[in-house]
Amino acid sequence: MPFKSKAQRRKFAQLLVEGKISNETYEEWNRETGARELPERIRRKSTPKKATKRRAKSKGKTRRAS
Fold first, then answer.
1. Sign of torsion, CA 37 23 7 45?
2. How far is CA 57 from the centre of its chain?
3. What percent of the chain has pLDDT over 70?
């Protein structure tokens, strides 16, 4: 799976130095990414906001039990 951003590549390099991932894993991801220009960071796709329904306000009167 290729890297999606420069920040992700730096994070994986840090994990490699700390010994949390193998050199083969890092090199595989690096190979699949190739020489393409990566963005600094990737933002999450925002979810579309749902249209909110407005309810009619009550007039404040309560029904009394008879």
1. positive
2. 38
3. 89
Q: What is the DSSP letter of 14?
A: H
Q: What is the pLDDT of residues 2-19, one digit of tens each?
A: 989 999 999 999 999 999
Both tokens of 25, joined, read 């894993």
Burial 24-40 (b: 16+ CB within 10 A, else e): eebeebeeeeeeeeeee
The four Cα atoms 27, 33, 38, 44 give a dihedral, to 10 degrees, of: -100
Q: How far apart are CA 30 and CA 1, in angstroms?
A: 9
**Any residues with CB less than 8 A from the CB of 9 and at least 6 apart, and which?**
3, 30, 33, 38
